[in-house]
Amino acid sequence: MTKTKWTIDVSHSEVAFSVKHMMISKVKGSFNQFDAAIEADPADLTTANITFTVDVASVDTRSEDRDNHLRSADFFDVETYPTLTVISKKITKTGDNEYELIGDVSLHGVTREETFQVTFEGEAKDPWGNDKAGFSGSGKVKRSDYGLTWNTALETGGVLVGDQITLNFDIQAVKQA
Description:
It holds the Pfam family YceI. The chain is mostly beta strands and 177 residues long.
């Protein structure tokens, strides 16, 4: 196959994260608004060009107070830095339908190279004749690498918010005509 353009079917996709809270549990959340420019042959992602953009103001942890704090200058500072962007640089096949994606992640005014594991979940035609492809993946980033250092020390030792963030995504893409 040849590379074609794909867009994200947001209603069938998710961008989620988790982070340690109080050193004893994890808080999970998602971003509800995101988009991507994808040029790829789903059967061989090694030649794909991907630019993925997340509206960080769309953060949703099921707690309005926490979400507002995450949007503030203590964390994302969405008024100054409204997006998180991932631009693919190199994609390597690591197994059947398994890939390692190395890309530049830009967040909070900082750009760093990060690695994500990606699985091609398959292709299908929906009941309306649209070609769809599914992808899932994950990666870990340190929030302090992006200047996101707000925290509070705990009386029992440790800190309120962990430094390592696990990012997970499930994407359903639609082939463009």
